[in-house]
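Figure 2 data, in text form.
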Amino acid sequence: MENVTKNVTDILYNYHIVTKQVTNKKLLKKFKGERKMKKKVFALTIALTMLLALALPLGASATQEVGTIILNLAAANTPPEVTANFEHLTFNAYRVFTLTGNSTSGFIYGIHGDFEDFEYDGESGEDLIDLIYGLNDTGLRRLTEALMEHIRDEDVDPTSIQAPTSTNGYRSVTFANVPRGYYLITGQVKETPPGTIAAFLALVSTGSEELDISPKFDLPKIDKVFEENEQKVNDATIGDTIGYKVPITLPSNLKAFDEYILIVRDTMSKGLTFVPDSVRVNGDVVAGTGTYAVTATPVAGQPTLVTITFNSDWVLAREASSVIMVTYDAILNQLAEVDKPETNEVELEYSNDPSNTAKTGTTVPPDEPPEVYTFDIDIYKYTGNIEDESDTPLGGAKFVLSRTGTHLDGQGTIAAKVAAIKAESFIDFIPVVQVSPGNFRVAVAGEANRIKEMTTHTDGSLNVFGLGAGTYYLYETETADDTTYTLLTAPVVITIIHDADAEGNLLGTATVNYSYGVQTYSNVEKINILNSRATLFPDTGGVGTTVFYIVGGLVMAGAIVTLIIRRRVAVK
């Protein structure tokens, strides 16, 4: 028969593709074998590696009926979970197709007895062999999943079971002298101890020479970022709602399971209040008996554990290696602290053994948990001169904080406008709760004892904490002494900027700037507000000086008249 040269791809779990040349002739010999006694496969097939076909040396003899497969567990390809459980790993090789022939006469694949009833995409037997040559990476992945389902359902025994060995630091798995064929290789973990590891799944052809492959490993993955900026750091004002995104990448061997456990656990720090009805999956899937269930265990003053348990059938209906996007909200509450982030530590529990669905593993995001910060501003009210340290702190001055800078616009006196501010609702101003004299925290909705006006301490200080990045307007509503000082005629404009690195990644600090009138101050630790006096030194031309000039003029005129009279008397 005519030899045909084909390109066959090796597909790793992340679909990195390497192309090999294989010479073969149109194959098609059906082999039937007697089915062996079965036992359960204890497979931990988490990641997908599909390596299809090995080129045999030119002129290899058709009588060479055995070959060797070596899996190189190099440190670079082996995750910590595997390294930690190295002594408890085993690997199974399942002979799916027989293989005869050589590069001169061509290769012939046949169906192995354990897979004579196997169907994929409606094809079986010789038609299935033809189909495999035309599969792309997606098709090969699905073929592997279908083979795993067949192994599970039919309790197929592995052709060979091997454990890794270590020689001079080189760790490998060797399937020596196995019958030539097309093999499905799965990784597994021994019963004792029941460690959680990552393993791999492979499709390989073997002939008379050694097949040396470096399997790549995969685990289901989970991550968590802020919905607003898709970063790990954000800021908020107390009472704000914070959105989170939790992407879950399903395993590549999902279809090998007839049941699948998938549970998200999120531990929210005490400064965050979970919003139960905010949970959504893939945009619009809500909680229910056929999708997922949400539970939360809030305890006052303690972290909250949120658990999202997915329905097994719903998960198994997803595509292997696809992403489930979970979103939900939390509110920054009154327990949040300045400069100490509120965090979410999320983990994923998942099935890791198709033959024992009760066996699970856990994984966490690759980076630090999301951190939400809240900031504060320090205000100092004084009279005198700060520059020469002759300033005097002023207690008793009152202020309100708003996100709107137009409350003093329009006609009318300052007194009238301030009176209107005092009468306005919380809608236009940021409500606060007094923690101690001069110290105020942003209030949450409906909190008792919340107020609008904040009063400076006797030392002139005023601190407001629980603020997110943004622009705020500080209005003076009462002076320290109404008879001596006047109200500010415009708001102090305060800007809190969340600091970021050169790449735009937010940090855990903030910069405060402020301005009043034409004066602008940057990167300040304290907002200094000088008091204005109610009266000024008299101006030249004012009523007081006019009286002074008139009186002075009359005195001078009287003196001149007296002097003239005295001179006349002296002459006489």
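Caption note: The longest helix spans residues 543-571.
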